């Protein structure tokens, strides 16, 4: 499993998730977006419709009748009823994500200590590749 740590220093999660979602769908994968904050999921939902110019990213909320058909599923749990192998943890809180191939942990500066603990925890696990990303102006740069 690959875990990408995204430190959100400029943009909030609702502006980053649509970009990750577009890339995920472009790679032929489905996406699960997880947050314990219903208001944040609402902002992410709106951004998925509006953020990417000249398109929208079809999605639905977990617990609906058509979860299995959703290319992007939003919810509070890490169970991917849509068969997603990619997961965004949008609220900065690490959760176990069994069966996922790739996980994006988005965290604001105030959650950096939690992200560091998670980084160390995952570093002890076999088969986990970790990467760290930070915003440098308007671009994402991989770095220490």
Short description:
The protein has helices spanning 13-26, 38-50, 112-123; strands at 2-7, 31-34, 60-61, 72-75, 86-89, 102-107, 129-136, 139-142. The protein has 144 residues and is of the alpha/beta class.
Shape: globular
Count of individual helical segments: 3
Low-confidence runs (pLDDT<50, min 5 residues)?
none
Question: What's the total count of β strands?
Answer: 8
Give the DSSP E fraction (strand runs of 2 or more residues): 25-35%
Question: What class do helices, strands and sheet pairing give?
Answer: alpha/beta
The CATH topology assignment is Rossmann fold
| Radius of gyration from CA coordinates | 14 Å
Describe how the helices and strands are arranged:
Layout: E1 2-7, H1 13-26, E2 31-34, H2 38-50, E3 60-61, E4 72-75, E5 86-89, E6 102-107, H3 112-123, E7 129-136, E8 139-142
Parallel strand pairs: 1-6, 1-7, 2-4, 2-5, 3-4, 5-6
Antiparallel strand pairs: 7-8
Helix pairs in contact: 1-2
Describe, in plain words, how this protein is organized in 3D.
By secondary structure, this protein is α/β, with parallel strands linked by helices. The longest helix is centred in the first third of the chain and has 14 residues, at 13-26. It has an eight-stranded mixed beta sheet, sandwiched between helices. 33% of the residues are buried. The chain has one domain (2-142): Rossmann fold (3-Layer(aba) Sandwich), CATH 3.40.50.10110. The protein has helices at 13-26, 38-50, 112-123, and strands at residues 2-7, 31-34, 60-61, 72-75, 86-89, 102-107, 129-136, 139-142. The chain contains three helices and eight strands, in the order βαβαββββαββ.
């Amino acid at each position: 499993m690959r875990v990408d740590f995204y430190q959100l220093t400029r943009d909030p999660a609702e502006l980053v998730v649509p970009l990750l979602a577009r890339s995920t769908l472009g790679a032929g994968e489905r996406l699960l977006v997880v947050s314990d904050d219903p208001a944040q999921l609402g902002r992410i939902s709106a951004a998925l419709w509006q953020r990417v110019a000249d398109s929208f990213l079809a999605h639905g909320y977990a617990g609906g009748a058509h979860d299995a058909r959703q290319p992007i599923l939003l919810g509070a749990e890490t169970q991917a009823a849509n068969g997603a192998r990619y997961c965004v943890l949008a609220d900065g809180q690490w959760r176990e994500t069994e069966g996922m191939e790739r996980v994006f942990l988005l965290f604001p500066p105030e959650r950096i200590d939690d992200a560091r603990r998670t980084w160390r925890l995952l570093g002890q696990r076999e088969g986990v590749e970790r990467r760290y990303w930070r915003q440098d102006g308007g671009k994402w740069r991989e770095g220490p």
